[in-house]
Write a sequence for this structure.
């Protein structure tokens, strides 16, 4: 098969990871896949990177005012690719957005033999679109509602997002669950070696939160950390990622940093090759979540990495993540509106030697049997074959 992936994110950010790992494993299965994405840095150039049968085409990124300025330019470039690329399948990710929806609609009209597959991995209508100006919100809500009528198949990363396709009128047999999976290897570094590499004492207690973007959940996490410190006084909290937060949030966070200095450590962004070292060095991995539609619908990539690490996962989980953690008993959860309970769950993860092994085994089994890219790519391949046969 020849497959084109439309993705609005820059390389190495957000939905790009979902696209890249699916595309990579489909390419390994013998298919020709082209993945379109934006450049990480501002540029007007177009460049390709080849990985076997996978071509990653990196399109211009222009930031005149905001991060999204280049979307409209890429809409036209994506449309050109859709009209000229030889393909059997067009898989459109984050399809409500105009750089994706317009080329997809154009393809469905101009090239009726190309099969259209739409993907939901974030809550747009009723979620992210609420943070856009009214005209943009109206367009994105409209395309989310209407474009599924042109789809041959649909994929989604959560039960809530599958329901979105049902609400748009797609029949059940066209809607498929395609979860996100770990991006790190299951063969993690030895904990003692990882700690030595980070300069962390062997007996120190350290919890880690990985990610770039935080909302109000950041302060639920910090309050939970403060609660856990009552039982584990020397507990350290590491943040791995860029920490894209507002100046107001920085000021609020500074209060905690001063109170617990030097035990709150902002590591910053690290190369993907170094991420396993930080995960392996931790005593628990924290996933703070908000009680809102966006968080309930999403499947953060880092959750899969957490499960694959073998380190206990603690979250004030909601939505899809809560469903997985409780269904498979693979982590420690706390009510989303209770930082005290979140902190107590952190303490339990650090001290609960009996249940910790069971949860570790359950997480390992879940990754081995279901949440791994080769298995998910094989499922997606079967969906494509069914689409082409229809």
């Amino acid at each position: 098969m020849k497959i084109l992936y439309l993705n609005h994110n820059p390389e190495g950010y957000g939905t790009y990871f979902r696209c890249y790992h699916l595309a990579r494993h489909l390419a390994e299965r013998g298919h020709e896949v082209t993945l379109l994405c934006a450049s990480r840095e501002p540029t007007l150039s177009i460049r390709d990177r080849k990985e076997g049968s996978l071509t990653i085409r990196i399109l211009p990124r222009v930031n005149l005012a905001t991060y999204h300025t280049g979307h409209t330019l890429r809409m036209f470039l994506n449309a050109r690719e859709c009209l000229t690329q030889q393909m059997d399948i067009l898989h459109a990710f984050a399809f409500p957005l105009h750089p994706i929806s317009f080329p997809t609609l154009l393809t469905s009209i101009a090239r009726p033999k190309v099969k259209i597959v739409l993907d939901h991995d974030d809550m747009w209508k009723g979620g992210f679109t609420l943070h856009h100006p009214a005209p943009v919100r109206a367009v994105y809500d409209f395309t989310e509602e209407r474009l599924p009528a042109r789809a041959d198949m649909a994929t989604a990363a959560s039960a809530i997002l599958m329901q979105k396709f049902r609400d748009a009128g797609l029949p059940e047999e066209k809607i498929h669950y395609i979860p996100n999976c770990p991006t790190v290897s299951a063969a993690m570094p030895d904990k003692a070696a990882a700690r030595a590499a980070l300069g962390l004492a062997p007996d120190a207690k350290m919890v880690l939160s990985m990610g770039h973007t935080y909302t109000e959940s950041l302060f639920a996490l910090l309050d939970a950390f403060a609660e856990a410190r009552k039982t584990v006084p020397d507990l350290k909290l590491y943040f791995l990622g860029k920490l894209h937060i507002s100046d107001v949030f920085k000021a609020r966070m500074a209060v905690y940093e001063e109170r617990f200095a030097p035990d709150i450590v902002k590591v910053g962004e690290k190369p993907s090759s170094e991420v396993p070292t930080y995960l392996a060095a931790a005593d628990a991995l924290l996933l703070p979540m908000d009680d809102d539609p966006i968080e309930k619908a999403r499947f953060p990539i880092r959750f899969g990495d957490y499960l694959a690490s073998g380190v206990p996962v603690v979250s004030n989980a909601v939505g899809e993540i809560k469903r997985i953690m409780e269904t498979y008993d693979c982590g420690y959860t706390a009510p989303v509106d209770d930082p005290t309970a979140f902190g107590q769950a952190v303490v339990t993860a650090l001290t609960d030697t009996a249940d910790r092994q069971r949860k570790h085994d359950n997480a390992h089994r879940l990754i081995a049997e279901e949440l791994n890219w080769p298995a998910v790519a094989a499922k997606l391949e079967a969906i494509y074959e069914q689409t082409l046969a229809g």
Notes: The first strand starts at residue 2 and ends at 10. Residues 2-180+373-389 form a domain with the Rossmann fold fold (CATH 3.40.50.2000). The chain has a mean pLDDT of 94. The chain has 15 helices and 14 strands.
